[in-house]
Amino acid sequence: MNKKLIALAVGSAIGALGASAAFAQSSVTLSGSLNFNYGLFDNGGAGFGKGTNNSVGNAKAKYDGLSNQESQWAMAGEEKLANGMSAFFLCSTSMDITGGTAANMCARNSYIGLKGGFGNVNFGNYDTPAKRMSGLFDPFPISAAMGQGAHMWNETASNTGNATTLGDTSKLTSISDAKTASFSRRQAQLITYSTNTINGFDASVAYSAANDSSSSTYAAQVLKPRMWSAMATYSNGPLQLGIGYENHHNYNPGQGNGGTAGTGVFSGYTGGDDTMLSLGAGYKVSDALRLSAIWNQIKYEKVNGVNDMGVVTYGLYADWNISGPHRVRLGYNVQNSTTGTLTGMSATATSQVGKWTPNAGAGDTGAKKIVLEYVNHLSKRTDVGVTYASLSNDRYSAQTIGTGGSSATNFGETATFMGVLIRHKF
After folding, report:
1. Residue 264 to residue 259: CA distance in whole angstroms
2. Which helix (DSSP H) or strand (DSSP E) does residue 329 occupy?
3. Nearest alpha carbon to residue 46 among 35, 56, 34, 36
4. Tens-digit pLDDT profile for residues 305-360
5. Phi, psi angle pair for 129, to nearest 5°
6. DSSP string, 231-294
7. Which domains can be identified in the chain, with CATH numbers?
8. Pairing status of strand 156-160 against strand 184-194
9. Assuming Cys at both sites, which of 24, 126, 280, 413 could form a disulfide with 47, CB separation 3.0 to 4.6 Å?
10. Please, what's the largest Cα pairwise distance for the chain?
């Protein structure tokens, strides 16, 4: 059904183009932002080692770190065509003044597409509809110390294709163990259709092309990983609502965390459907204060060929422009304990699905994170401020506070970050 909808939109666009050969000069704009945090990371004490024998983990020290928080520059263009249509493109590229790894051109959200009365369709490397829906209600970034990616969506996957189910190292070089489990994805080879806004309603649906999974097999079965994602939002005055859904078919989120040596899959894996249902709500109490919330239900099917795992996460947020240039943002994020029949724990070892620990629903596998940010808007383009984040792990959870150095956290520890920020947009 979704394939037919996107194909119909593409066909309508091509048909409209054929009706006339009138073209106009295109326009190109350049924009971007530099976002950096500097501060003190504290990943807690020794905490617990892996497993259920209450062994002591390796001691962790405090350290200071400079973090790049999704800095980028973007080039966008549009050309007006006949019959109310336009061709458009976006090329976004990461920037890092800390001396980090250089990014390829157009390695962030980047696409080319057509739009008109039918809506718009684009092709490229792009955030999934479900991720974009959540971004409407979360005022914080996904990554770094102030980000919510790991505990809200089981890590963040950037520029990631369909997950492989075979121990093919050529397909694993850009996909870490956690990426197959992630539901916060900037998906490569993505085809997206979005409607125009109608009476406050917007909708979008996308699916991933099978470029990097066309030869994926496991044992005698041919498994073809594929991702589907959709969202719908409604805005009316101060109220905004959203719903998102995403399906990962044959992704095997347990990849790399156990199973047959050399294959990167759990023994006996025969394919499954991992899903996420997301709900979002926001309300503008006044011109200065907006409250919002996100709720996610994530389920992994047949991780080891038999057992499943589920997690519910939610976040509550406030964005308050106190007066003049002064602004405060507050977030409270909860990853509940895992549920389901899957377990990977023994007395001396703990296997995880992405960043989450399965223990057959016995509990004590969740985490909570508080984030607080004060910002002074020095101008329309430049902000400075102070930030604080605290992530508290349950006994069998080892979530990290974010990037900026060696940020590994022991099981059961509380990690913190205190720092300063500077942001500049152009």
Report:
1. 7
2. strand 326-335
3. 56
4. 788 999 999 999 999 999 999 999 999 999 999 999 998 788 888 888 888 999 99
5. -55, -40
6. EEEEEETTEEEEEEEEEEES--TTTTSSSBTTTTB-TT----EEEEEEEEEEEESSSSEEEEEE
7. 37-71+128-425 (2.40.160)
8. parallel
9. 413
10. 73
